[in-house]
Design goal:
Length: 178
C-alpha cells in the first residue's frame, strides 16, 4: 500500500492522505511461460492448468505489473529452439529483476536452512529474487518446491530471519478475477 501526502492543514494539525492506485506486482516464474506456450497436454490436469494459464494471461494480466529475472530468460531460452522462441516471445519486454547479492544470500539460505533441496537451487533463486525485490506475488506451477503449502511456513521463517517478507506464492488460478 502506498500513500501520498497531499495537504497539510496546520490549523487542524492533521494531514490528509490518499491511496495511490498501483497495480500489484507479479514475478512470473518459468513454469508459467512453459504452460502458456507448450503444446496441449494429454494429461487432463496439465491441460486444465494450461487453459487456466492462458485464461489468466489473456484476461487478468493487465491488472498486474509483471516481472521476470535473468533466471527466467535463461531457462526459457534453453531446450528446443522453436519452444525457446515461443517462450522468449511471451516474456519479451517484461522488466527483469536483478539477481543481487542479497538474493543470492537468501537463495543459499533457503537451501541450507530452509526446505528447498540443493538439487532445486534454481527454485530457491526464483523465490529469493521475488522476495528481495518486494514482489506482491510469485506465480508458478512448480508445486514441488515453490507453491507448496507444507513448506511455505519454513520459507516464511527463513525470509523473516533475513528481514524479508515472502510474497504470496500462487498459481494463475488463484489470481483469476471473476
Amino acid at each position: 500500500m502506498s500513500f501520498n501526502k497531499i495537504r497539510d492543514i496546520p490549523d487542524l494539525h492533521c494531514t490528509i492522505f490518499f491511496k495511490t492506485k498501483m497495480k500489484p506486482t507479479v514475478y512470473i516464474e518459468t513454469s508459467i511461460v512453459s504452460y502458456l506456450t507448450a503444446s496441449l497436454s494429454n494429461d487432463i490436469r496439465v491441460l486444465a492448468n494450461q487453459n487456466i494459464t492462458v485464461e489468466w494471461w489473456n484476461n487478468s494480466r493487465g491488472n498486474f505489473d509483471l516481472y521476470i529475472s535473468e533466471l527466467v530468460t535463461t531457462e526459457a531460452s534453453g531446450g528446443d529452439k522453436e519452444a525457446a522462441k515461443r517462450h522468449l516471445d511471451v516474456i519479451e519486454g517484461l522488466p527483469e529483476l536483478e539477481v543481487s547479492e542479497n538474493a543470492e544470500s537468501l537463495a543459499k539460505a533457503l537451501c541450507i536452512e530452509g526446505p528447498v533441496p540443493q538439487n532445486a537451487e534454481i527454485d530457491a533463486y526464483h523465490i529469493a529474487v521475488a522476495t528481495v525485490n518486494g514482489m506482491d506475488y510469485l506465480m508458478t506451477w512448480n508445486c514441488a518446491h515453490i507453491a507448496n503449502a507444507v513448506i511455505r511456513p519454513k520459507l516464511e521463517e527463513v525470509c523473516y530471519d533475513y528481514n524479508y517478507q515472502l510474497p504470496v506464492i500462487c498459481t494463475p488460478q488463484e489470481l483469476l478475477e471473476e
